[in-house]
Design a protein that fits this description.
The protein is 81% helix and 0% strand. It is mainly alpha-helical.
């Protein structure tokens, strides 16, 4: 169950980050509300995951998912460009997340 909590926390992290972009500096109400609710919910699910996962593993995976998710959605939703070095670094983050999960004893 702790892995499900961590995945939900990561999805919500990406959600609030994208909503924040849409909020235009908290001047658009609905994305602003989604940002605040998503942020709080992400922290709640991360805290639930931390009951059974080590801090280093859970936090690294949570932030890694967030980096990958927001980078990908930035390209598709906002037309942001990724350079080859950036893509390589994102792939390395995915490899790191995978390694943490595979090597985790939790």
């Amino acid at each position: 169950m702790q892995w499900i909590y961590l995945i939900l926390a990561a999805i919500l992290e990406v959600t609030w980050a994208v909503a924040m972009k849409y909020s235009e500096g908290f001047t658009v109400i609905i994305p602003s509300i989604i940002t605040v609710i998503g942020y709080i919910a992400s922290a709640v699910f991360l805290s639930l995951a931390l009951k059974h996962l080590s801090l280093g593993t859970a936090y690294a995976m949570w932030t890694g998912f967030g980096i990958v998710g927001t980078s990908v959605l930035g390209v598709f939703l906002f037309g942001e460009k990724l350079s080859v070095p950036q893509i390589i670094c994102i792939v390395l983050i995915v490899i790191g997340i995978t390694g943490l999960k595979l090597l985790s004893k939790e």
